[in-house]
Amino acid sequence: MHRSSSWTLVGLLLFLIGMSLLVSADPPQKYMPEGPGVIDGRAAIVVLPALYDDSGSPDFFDPSGLEVHLTPEDDPAVELAYPAGKWFQPPPGHYRVWLQGGWRMTPFAGRILWGAPVAKGGLSTVYTVGPAGRVKLSATTPRNPDLELHLLHAGSYLQSGFARWEISPRRNAADVGDGMLMPAGRTVGGLWNRKTQSYVALSRAFEVRERATVEIPLERPQDGADLVAELARHRVAGRAGELEVKLMVRQEGVEKVPDLAIFTADKIYAFWYGLAPGLAELRGESDRDFFQSPPIQLQTGKIERVADELKPKPALKVQLDLPAALMQEEPVLEIRHLPQGEVLAHRALAPAEVPLDFERLPPALLQVELRTNLGSFSREVDLGPGQDGFLLLKPELITVGGTVYYGDKGHPARLTFANAKRETEVRAEEDGRYQTVFLEPVQTVSIQLDGVGRTPYFDFFRPALTESKEIDFHLPDGDFRVKVLDAATGKGIPTASVDFRNSYDAGDDTIKQARQERREKAVFQIMKTDETGEARLPPLRAGKLELRASAEGYAGMREPMKAEILDADADQRFEVRLQPVGETISVRLTLPNGAPASAAQVLLVDSLATARELFFARADGEGSVRIPRKQNGFLLAKHSAAAFSVREWRPQGEENEVVWSLPMAADRPLTIQVKDASGEASRKADLAVWVEGWRLSGAVLTWLTAAPPVTDQNGYWTANNLPRGTVSILAWGPQAREAMDGAAMTAQANSVSYPWPQPVQIKAVE
């Protein structure tokens, strides 16, 4: 920047952000503008051009034929032009500025904040120029007066590590004529309708060649939709690292990065071409900033535009008010991103910790957890709107005490209180008295009596214990045992699993059973039999008992054994017999989230057509079930937290375990409406549904879906827990039943893609 004469900043501001203009040494005298830089007694501006050689030194030249172009930042459609090398006075305002003329053009723009011109002096500046070409419209492009051609130089906006401002000229389509000058290099353009405020056509990135004219390859989307995002920065980017922003469009869980992204000092332009129609979400994030849009409805053949701004990531202030007991050991504070659980901050707390400040957090639901020697305490805070948050952590300790009774006397014991994350042990003294302190809610307790060789007593709290209270435990002294026997030999089966459910009147208001006035609780436990096949149950309550046993090489029980416990202090014996099935293979079933599919039901049938049952079992707490090795057929599996699944069962080799992951269930039922040839509801029509390549009908379809294999009186059939994906469906009336062999079914089935319409309408084959 060179001052040709003195001037003042009162009323005149030249704002060159991020070195957008080249600051040069004094240009050669022969190119200096004439006069003192004053017009009508007031200061003015002059702009001079320069080139760079390989050494990086500026090479100044005659500005003849070049123009200074200015566009107001609040209205880029307006373009002012002044001769380069001549003094001029633009109206007050904020402008983007570049030089152009002949086959040369500034490759990036500068910014000027120009106030009311004042007396005494002017200002001269130097801009670099580079090679340029021209861009014109196709002869077939409509010359509608409402249409504008928008061009954006897609080249690098970095020089010496600093971000620049874009050159984005625009002009009425009718005025483009032989072409608009653009810097050589990659360019993208669009045809903008001022009246509808939308793009009607876009180009992909194309090359502008030096001293050549290229026709802009504008296209309208055909099979999909295009999306343009224009995001302003809340602060001007400085060096290269501050430009980085990750942008993506999410559709049905799939994320797509832009086909073209252009990052400038104060704006981001991103383009997606040929997106699938439907709802889409636009997201963006950097170390400092974020952006998220409401759902965008994309339509085939349309171009959607999102114009918004990046926002600074929110901050969180955490105020602590902790009991002294929690500071005996150095507690730790962690902030996690929900639901993923990613740790965003981890900080050890000093005894005199001041309020904690956390910056640049994601705009999302966060969990703030305090971990101490007595457990953890957490709260959630929603920063989703992007606003700064405040959270007060003021945990209260839970004191629990009471007496453990065995019969009618207090008895020493070891109590283990627990929740899903932590166990706390405490001793009951000789008189049975105990007391302990918790930070977290308590869900269960296990009590092992001293000197009594019995399985620990187990109980749970519903709702979880969240406040201080006195709790006495009265343990019955009845002796309950179950014997698991081989039904063929009568011998005990060692290491058999025994599951039991003991339901009883809770005597409080913790649970209200539907349609009943009584309150009832239930305790579940799993144990193993000893070498004689016997398992000793923990103390039971008067009420109902359900027993289910399983063992390797034996068929599972379809229904549990049921009994009444009339007196919790009276001894009782139970016996369960299992049918041997020979050598087995362990099948371990998992849910879509990887958790064990405990209590999943598994049915082995000879074929999907005849559905003759060969074996049935329920998975244990680890999701495992033993299936006969030497019986071939088809395995059917179902679980309330997943979709059903089918697989052929023909064990090969010496494999000892098969892992079977159940698929994710569809988020809504499959409803089929069947009509006959006349358009009337087809009642009691038979159905076949192809799921994951298997044809399901009859008893198999009923077992998997819990729905009859025929339509109801109104021609409808509905089933839950189907896996997501394409299904094929066929319905046929009574007169076609005999002719519907396998080949005919497959050929006439109707294929329906997920998400399925509601309902799926088909015609019955007559």
What does this structure look like?
- The protein is mostly beta strands and 766 residues long.
- Helix content is 2%, strand content 47%.
- It has 2 helices and 67 strands.
- Strands 5, 6, 7, 8, 9, 11, 16 and 20 form an 8-stranded mixed sheet that branches. Strands 22, 23, 26, 27, 28 and 30 form a 6-stranded antiparallel sheet that branches.
- A hairpin with a 7-residue loop joins strand 5 (67-72) and strand 6.
- The longest helix is centred in the C-terminal third of the chain and has 8 residues, at 698-705.
- The chain is flat, with a radius of gyration of 39 Å.
- The chain starts with 37 loop residues before the first strand and ends with a strand.
- Residues 1-29 and 508-518 have low confidence and may be disordered.
Q: Keywords for this structure?
A:
single chain; 766 residues; mainly beta; eight-stranded mixed β-sheet; six-stranded antiparallel β-sheet; 2 helices; 67 strands; flat; disordered N terminus
Q: How confident overall, as mean pLDDT? A: 85
Share of β-strand residues: over 45%
Structural class: mainly beta
Rg calc:
39 Å
Largest sheet: 8 strands, mixed
**What best-fitting shape do the alpha-carbon axes yield?**
flat
Measured distance between first and last alpha carbons: 88 Å
Total helices: the number is 2
According to DSSP, the number of beta strands is 67
